[in-house]
Amino acid sequence: MTSFKTIRARAEKRKGRPKALDRLMPDKPDLKGLAKLGDDRILAEMTKRVFCAGFAWSVIDTKWDGFEDAFLHFQPAKLSFQPEDYWEALLRDARIVRNGAKIMSVRDNATFVQEIAKEHGSFGKFLATWPPSNEIGLLDLLTKRGSRLGGNTGQMLLRFVGWDGFVTSKDVVACLRDAGLDIAEEVKSKGDLAKVQAQFNAWAEETGLPYTYLSRICALSVGENRSAH
């Protein structure tokens, strides 16, 4: 496998210089901040990622204030106790995107968030203690216990709440394949995910960098994201 030093050097060359690449990095993972994140904000992000899947993100962002109001600001306990007619009314509510299956996922995920919070104190505390060396285990849990949180949706949820992990975007997968990892062009199988996890674990040990940085640098080293430099 190609060393990460080589991949980083390629990304730096593509983006102009090392400092230019550094400016493209996300905030460093903040476990203390993640542990303090309210369950309502976790559920809100779950909902946003579910509704963004297969839909224009800009539309969801534009309507988001309406989502907050319609879904009672994503307070899990309140949502869990809402009667059937509340959920049926949302199917006609113009403040949100009226997709029945996605609307009902909010109710299911409110229960999921409460269950995890009861077990660990809060969903944020639960995430903050889960090691990035086992992201695939966390993704499996989201898939099995959550609603519509499988695949890329789960990965994007973790990224947006600030958990330290990789995302198997098209560019990241292209980088991994170019580095010599034997995986499909679209990483969907558990076997391929395990290979991706093992490689990011190796690169984390090699570099000491957060997984989020490794994933971003990997993506910037290939594909169509070249800068003017």
Give a verbal description of the structure:
The radius of gyration is 19 Å and the shape is elongated. It has 229 residues and is an all-alpha fold. The protein has helices at 4-15, 18-22, 31-36, 39-52, 57-62, 64-70, 76-80, 84-90, 100-120, 123-128, 135-145, 151-161, 170-178, 190-207, 211-220. Helix content is 65%, strand content 0%. The mean pLDDT is 96. The longest helix has 21 residues, at 100-120. The protein starts with a helix and ends in a 9-residue tail after the last helix.
Radius of gyration: 19 Å
Distance between the termini: 28 Å
Low-confidence stretches: none
Quaternary status? single chain
Number of helices: 15
Which overall shape is indicated by the principal axes computed on the Cα atoms? Answer: elongated
Task: Give the fraction of residues assigned to helices.
Answer: 55-70%
How confident overall, as mean pLDDT? 96
The strand count comes to 0
How is the secondary structure organized here?
Blueprint: H1 4-15, H2 18-22, H3 31-36, H4 39-52, H5 57-62, H6 64-70, H7 76-80, H8 84-90, H9 100-120, H10 123-128, H11 135-145, H12 151-161, H13 170-178, H14 190-207, H15 211-220
Characteristic key phrases:
229 residues, 0% strand
